[in-house]
Amino acid sequence: MPVPIIEIGDIAVHGPKNDLSDVENIRVGHHQRIGDGWLSGTTVVLPPPGTVGGVDVRGGGPSTRETDALAPTTLVSTVNAVCLSGGSSFGLAAADGVMQLLEERRSGLRVGPDESHVVPIVPAACLFDIIGGGAYTHRPDASFGRAALEAATTHVTQGTVGAGTGARAGGLKGGIGSASVVLENGVTVAALVALNSGGNVVDPRTGELYGRRYGLDGEFDHVVTPSPRDVASSRHWLSGPRARNTVLVVVATDASLSKSESCRVAMAAHDGLARAISPVHCLTDGDVVFSLATGAVTLPDGAGHDVISAASSRPEHLDVIMAAGAHAVTRAVVHAALVATSTENTPAYLDAYPSARA
Question: What is the pTM of this model?
Answer without folding.
Answer: 0.93
